[in-house]
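Reviewers of the previous submission asked for a worked example of the structure-prediction workflow described in the proposal, so we include one complete record here. The input consisted solely of the amino acid sequence. No template or homolog information was supplied to the procedure at any stage.
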Amino acid sequence: MAFKLKGAAELDRQLQELGAVGAVKVTRQAVREALKPALTKAQSTVPVGSVPHRTYKGRLVAPGYASRSLRIAVSVLRDRSAVIGRLGVLKEAFYAVQFIELGTAKIPRRPWLRPAFEATISQQLETLSRALKKRIDKIAR
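From that input alone, the workflow returned the following structure tokens.
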């Protein structure tokens, strides 16, 4: 997927004015907020079983565990050149992505995470730009 970012030079200038720590904090918060629409959509579309099951750790979990284990993780590269946002499940619920989303030789694939992400791309971009503007304006005051 390719996107054209308008106002990137102005955004870069504003983030540089905030300093390294301020820019990273603002960007991390904005990326987390931007992924929330995808999180909501994924939680509503993940297939839910009808019986409790055991995780690979042996813990008995109720139906809907995959939905409840969805998380947003945001990290920053060591050189602070990029902020990376990830949407996924906890390690104990890996089966929701590996077996359901991707399928196996015996289980047909039933994609839910990627379609949820792709369906909310425009909303994510809008939220990201709004969150960045809001946070930069707040600090600038």
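The chain has a mean pLDDT of 85. We consider this example representative of the routine output the project will generate in years two and three.
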